[in-house]
Amino acid sequence: MEPTVEDAVSSDFGLINKLDIHCDLKTLNDDLRKSLESEEKKKAKREESNEITHSQDMKEKLGSGEPSCSVKVHTAPQPGRGADLSKPPCRKAKEIRKERKRLKLMQQNPAGECEGFQAQCQPSSLLPPKTKSNQPKSLEDLIFESLPENASHKLEVRVVRSSPPSSQFKATFQESYQVYKRYQMVVHRDPPDKPTVSQFTRFLCSSPLETENSPNGPDCGYGSFHQQYWLDGKIIAVGVIDILPYCVSSVYLYYDPDYSFLSLGVYSALREIAFTRQLHEKTPQLSYYYMGFYIHSCPKMKYKGQYRPSDLLCPETYVWVPIEQCLPSLEKSKYCRFNQDLEAVDEGRSKEPDRLQVFYKKAIMPYGVYKKQQRDPSEEAAVLQYARLVGQACSERMLLFRN
């Protein structure tokens, strides 16, 4: 006789645990397995019937006031109503996202449905790699992200030509100068009489670069510019840059000290990098952002190494070397050769110094002609040092002034 729930209740209202016996069905034949499964089904039905009967008995005892114990009763789950046939069947979230993407592509391209069908028929090796939806945003996404019309503040960046000065540069000169003066006094501790208008003009406004507008160049042309950062109608920072055929050179940055909490130095560098990439789309050869000299032992100059990928110029072979390879050597010595090839030399070194161009007495002449007119032995050493520093190509394109 099979035990019932009543048998599990002892005279002291305790519970007697039933012992479950597990058989290894792998050792039994098919007939015996079927027999056991049939017996288990019958047993489950009898236990379900006994549990319901016991539940009714418990209710009668509670109603009569008789003492009872807490017994865990297993009841069969109530049958549900089933699937709602008036609603579409449930789908996985991944399938829903795919469907939305397909509809979006169809809206952008009328022939998208046909193209999508053809793409599905292609083998997986021919399909483009799947793009991850959680990829980090690009620099352009962060810099040029549009703000709502009701934003609390408005930031505007204007690029104005500084040499020769454009009308926009002239109209904002005084405001820009006042920001520069406050920056020099607060950040660099300059006395009030040092950052004068003439000093500001000579330092950051006058430029030896000539204006050039090339049909294949950037729309703003080549030359020297001020990149002004306007916040809510006032200048808070200015980045001084040179736009050259192969790079954008960052010359200087000054900002209103009241807004130093915005990390304007970092933001302006990222903004200039994004600007360089923007110019690169129109002028492919313009593909570098030059931050100037890097001084590893100076904190005010060392920050430039935080922007990657970056290269440093080897001072002996004049080849660009990734900064990661240079930093261990700079930790040991202030001056070091970055090029690890000990046999490498400067390929652009001065090999024919007599072809160096000299400007002397309002006349242009090769150094070979100029040195015949000189008797000072130290003059030759100075000219050869200049030729070694600038290289053969530049020594023939530039003029060395001598008096």
Automatic annotation (TrEMBL):
Keywords: Acyltransferase, Transferase, Ubl conjugation pathway
EC number(s) recorded for this UniProt protein: 2.3.2.8
Keyword Hydrolase tagged: no
Pfam families assigned: ATE_C (PF04377)
Example GO molecular function: transferase activity
Start and end residues of each stretch annotated as Disordered: 37-92
Top enzyme class: transferase
Catalytically driven reaction(s): an N-terminal L-alpha-aminoacyl-[protein] + L-arginyl-tRNA(Arg) = an N-terminal L-arginyl-L-aminoacyl-[protein] + tRNA(Arg) + H(+)
Stored PANTHER family: ARGININE-TRNA-PROTEIN TRANSFERASE 1, ARGINYL-TRNA--PROTEIN TRANSFERASE 1
Family according to the record: Belongs to the R-transferase family.
Function of the protein: Involved in the post-translational conjugation of arginine to the N-terminal aspartate or glutamate of a protein. This arginylation is required for degradation of the protein via the ubiquitin pathway.
Protein name as catalogued: Arginyl-tRNA--protein transferase 1
Species of origin: Odocoileus virginianus (White-tailed deer)
Organism lineage string: Eukaryota, Metazoa, Chordata, Craniata, Vertebrata
